[in-house]
Design brief:
Elements lengths: L3 E2 L5 E3 L6 E6 L5 H8 L10 E3 L5 E3 L5 E3 L13 H4 E6 L3 H4 L6 H18 L6 E3 H4 L13 H5 L19 H11 L6 H12 L10 H11 L8
Parallel strand pairs: 1-5, 3-7, 3-8, 4-7
Antiparallel strand pairs: 2-6, 4-5
């Protein structure tokens, strides 16, 4: 892929090998504002890459360095997600400034970028996540409009299970235990449930544990999730 080199000073050294990709939306009024913030030393935030709405990809931090994109977060036992991940910011105003669908040109670049990073670091599909997955009490991005299915059908992310679903009949506590086993921080049960829904059942994000949520989560915990691809 071709990148526009747009270096940010906001990084330090990794202490863990790269095992994750974290997708974000910028959540600012426009791309220029997001780029300026990600390069501002006082902001103390950055990402490895930024994908503009027209599909242009900016490289801001080298992959062998620890960019500051995840903040306080957790995934599958990893607490220093910044050290273990490559962060990709996707230009979109987000829920605060007029959340809207992601253009096809932008998603095509995200798909190509994720594919390259996944292969380079041998990252598993289950470790390609959204910011809301790793920080459910703080974040909603990339949000319910992000087309995860475009990644899933290319085996770049886990699919939404749709076939041979069975309801395990878990209590709310049992669902939370399963959610924790899958990878989420479940200290705040409702926030974790909403993050799960935002990713795998985005048409209804209400924090309520229902039969559909139980079925989807059970299927995801099986060795080979059968998805919508």
């Amino acid at each position: 892929m071709k990148f526009i080199e747009t270096p940010s000073p906001n990084f330090d050294d990794r202490t863990l090998p790269v095992t994750m990709i974290v997708l974000h939306y910028t959540g600012m009024q426009d791309g220029a504002s997001a780029i300026a913030r990600l390069r501002d030393p006082e902001a103390k935030v950055s990402s490895h890459y930024l994908v503009e709405e027209d599909g242009t990809v900016l490289r801001m931090v080298a992959e062998d360095k620890r960019a500051w994109h995840a903040g306080r977060s957790h995934w599958r036992g990893i607490e220093d997600v910044n050290s273990a991940s490559v962060g990709i910011e996707i230009v979109n105003p987000g829920h605060e400034f007029g959340y809207r669908p992601f253009p096809p040109e932008q998603i095509a670049s995200v798909v190509a970028l994720v594919a390259e990073i996944k292969d380079r670091h041998e990252i598993t599909r289950g470790n390609i996540v959204g910011h809301s997955d790793i920080a459910p009490t703080r974040k909603r991005d990339p949000g319910e409009l992000f087309p995860w299915h475009e990644l899933a059908r290319r085996r770049l992310a886990l699919p939404r299970p749709t076939k041979n679903l069975m309801d395990p009949g878990w209590t709310e506590g049992g669902f939370c235990l399963a959610l924790e086993r899958f990878g989420y921080d479940v200290e705040n049960r409702m926030a974790a449930t909403m993050a799960f829904q935002r990713r795998f059942r985005p048409e209804l994000v209400d924090g309520e544990v229902d039969a559909e949520c139980r079925c989807i989560l059970l299927a995801l915990l099986l060795p080979k999730p059968m998805g919508d691809d």
